[in-house]
Structure formats: structure tokens, C-alpha cells
Amino acid sequence: MPDSAQIFYRRALSHNNFGKIEYNLATIADYAGLTDNNPWNLANTVETNILEQLREYGHIDYYEKVGEDPKAPKYIIRRFGADSNENSGDVVGSVKRESR
């Protein structure tokens, strides 16, 4: 896995267990130490060398690029193995519902 993907994972993802996380392009670049001034190159680098690599290695389930501004996109990163309400209908917060 590329160094930038490892650094981003350690700084942004390894310490939380959220199933859905939103990051804008500048935040991901900052965490990974990327400094490209061209937003299109930066977005391509982030998608190819960080997000796609994390998906291939199983650290995230998928990512989605959203936002109106092509120069400053936002990425939604999903991890279904993490604690989230999206995976199970019987979990509310950290307390399981009991059947009656």
C-alpha cells in the first residue's frame, strides 16, 4: 500500500469506528501530506493512491465523491465493519434492543 494511504489511514481512520465519515479533499491531502496546487491532480492522486488502495486492501468498503464544486470535492468513506447503525436493525447507539 502506498505511503500516503498508510499515513491517511493512521491519522484519520484507525482511531475511530464510525461507519460513515465525510472528508473534503483538502483535509485528506493535509492528513496524507500531499501539496499539489492543482485540484484536479490532487483529486486524482487522492482517489488513486489513497482511497482506492484503502478499498483494495479492505480498510474501507467504498468511497463516494460528492459536492457541487469540482475543485473542492467531498468524499464519503464507508466502513461497514465499524460500529454503525447502518449494519444492524437491532442496534440503537450502543444499546441493543431486546425482543419482547
Description:
- The chain is α+β, with helices and mostly antiparallel strands and 100 residues long.
- It is built from three helices and five strands.
- The chain has helices spanning 3-13, 25-32, 39-56; strands at residues 20-24, 62-66, 74-78, 91-92, 95-96.
- The chain has a three-stranded antiparallel sheet. Strands 4-5 form a two-stranded antiparallel ribbon.
- Helix 1 crosses helix 2 (25-32) and helix 2 crosses helix 3 (39-56).
- It is globular, with a radius of gyration of 15 Å.
- The N and C termini lie far apart (48 Å).
- Computed Rg: 15 Å
Question: Mind summarizing the main beta sheet?
Answer: 3 strands, antiparallel
Give the strand tally. 5
> What is the tally of helical segments?
3
SSE sequence, one letter per element: HEHHEEEE
The shape, in one word, is globular
Strand order of the largest sheet: 1-3-2
Q: Which blocks of ≥5 consecutive residues have pLDDT under 50?
A: 84-100
What percent of the residues sit in helical stretches (DSSP H or I)?
25-40%
Taken as a percent bin, the fraction of beta residues is 15-25%
Distance between the termini: 48 Å
Structural class: alpha+beta
Oligomerization state: single chain
What is the residue-mean pLDDT, rounded to a whole number? 83
